[in-house]
Amino acid sequence: MDIEHTTRREQPTACATAHLTVDEIGPWISATYQAVMRTVAEQGSSLAGPPYGRYHQLDDGLLAVEAGFPVVTPITASGDVHPSALPGGPVATTIHIGPYDKVEPAYRALAEWIGEHGGEPAGDAWENYFSDPVSQPDPETWRTEIVQPYRDRTGL
């Protein structure tokens, strides 16, 4: 698996958040992307990249989910949609091709690469979705970028 590393600038986003089971994510995320796009357009901003999802495992079997889009200019909160940001700094990235439920090896590859290069994860990873399941129904062709922020633990 190819791993790339770079430094990214903090990216303002428009998003919504929820605590969900894995089975609830698909329907929620689809409706959320529609709500975020409406809010961004209503506020005169525009999308600055593909949709993303960020997931944090909670103790009770639920996931804390943040889903939205990077935006050109920050928005103000409206209903369930609010401003946020994807962090800046060093990141390791890889592209997963295939269904979402088979993405775990990409996360493992990123963790191994970061450890081998003297780093440690710095917060939750996020996924950038380059494929639209509605217009591209074959999950074997879906492209997802996994982005893991990290910090150097060697002190160099």
Rg estimate, integer Å: 16 Å
How far apart lie the N and C ends?
27 Å
Instruction: Give me the number of helical elements.
Output: 2
The chain-level structural class is: alpha+beta
The largest sheet is: 9 strands, antiparallel
The percentage of residues in β strands lies in 35-45%
Which range best describes the helical content: under 10%, 10-25%, 25-40%, 40-55%, 55-70% or over 70%?
10-25%
Shape: globular
Chain-averaged pLDDT: 96
pLDDT below 50 for ≥5 consecutive residues: which ranges? none
**Helix/strand order, N-terminal first:** EEHEEEEHEEE
Q: Could you give the count of β-strands?
A: 9
Question: Care to describe what's here?
Answer:
The chain is α+β, with helices and mostly antiparallel strands and 156 residues long. Helix content is 22%, strand content 38%. Strands 1, 2, 3, 4, 5, 6, 7, 8 and 9 form a nine-stranded antiparallel beta sheet that branches. The longest helix is centred in the N-terminal third of the chain and has 21 residues. It is globular, with a radius of gyration of 16 Å.
At a glance:
This protein is an alpha+beta fold and 156 residues long. It contains two helices and nine strands; from the N terminus they run ββαββββαβββ.
Annotation keywords:
156 residues; alpha+beta; 38% strand
Provide the fold topology:
Elements: E1 4-8, E2 11-20, H1 22-42, E3 52-57, E4 63-70, E5 82-86, E6 89-97, H2 104-116, E7 119-121, E8 126-129, E9 143-152
Antiparallel strand pairs: 1-6, 2-4, 2-5, 3-4, 3-8, 6-9, 7-9, 8-9
